[in-house]
Each structure stands twice: as C-alpha cells, then as structure tokens.
Write a structure and sequence with these properties.
Number of helices: 3
Structural class: alpha+beta
Number of strands: 3
Shape: elongated
Region (Disordered): 42-75
Biased composition (Basic and acidic residues): 42-63
Distance between the termini: 30 Å
Strand order of the largest sheet: 1-2-3
Strand content: 15-25%
C-alpha cells in the first residue's frame, strides 16, 4: 500500500473531492459502503427497467424458486459486512426480493461485473 494520497477519478468534481478529504476514515468507509449499495440499487433498477418487456423473458433457471417470477435477476446485498445473493424483480411500483445464497468471499467482484 502506498503512503501517497490516492488520485481521485478525473470525472469526480472538486467539491466532492474536497468534501471527502475532510472526512474521517470511519466516515469514508460509510460513504464507500453507501456508494456501493447505491450503485447496485441503480444498476438493479436499470436491469429491471430493461427487463420489463415480457417478450424477452428467458427460460426459467433451474435454481429459481416457484415463488419467484422468471424475469427476476440476481443481485448482491451487503448486510452487516456480509454479502448475499437475492432474486429481485419488479411488481408494479415495488421491487421485491427473495434470499438466494451467501456470496463466497472474492466471488462477489466477478459476479457483480458479469451479472
């Protein structure tokens, strides 16, 4: 690990960088956790929005429970510093979820990118 301050992404505004630089390590970890969860939420909403056309419904996966519609997607939720797979789908104005499996350590990064 380098002793130099990290370089912020070029597309991050100076105001955000200045604000983050004023935060404590604990606050930064909270912001990172929230940002990750918010990004997952927005990606999930986009997938659900894209999948709202029933003509694109794929064949039902073998591990999909009967109570979960075939248009459901998998997502990862972080709870108490642990990560879990959930089935998620849109039902009117609501997003519904059903527990699937725990995420094995190290596995969630590649799964999140490919899902």
């Amino acid at each position: 690990m380098s002793y130099e301050s990290p370089t912020p992404p070029a597309d991050l505004s100076a105001d955000i960088v200045d604000t983050l630089n004023g935060y404590s390590p604990g606050q930064l970890k909270d912001v990172a956790r929230y940002a990750e969860e918010l990004a997952e939420h927005k990606e999930r909403e986009a997938r659900l929005e894209e999948g709202s056309d029933d003509s694109d419904v794929k064949e039902r996966p073998n591990d999909l429970p009967d109570s979960v519609p075939s248009k459901a997607t998998t997502t990862i939720k972080g709870i108490n510093d642990n990560r879990y797979y959930y089935w998620q789908w849109g039902d009117g104005d609501q997003i519904k979820s059903k527990y699937k499996d725990p995420v094995n350590s190290g596995e969630w990064i590649t799964t999140r990118i490919s899902t």
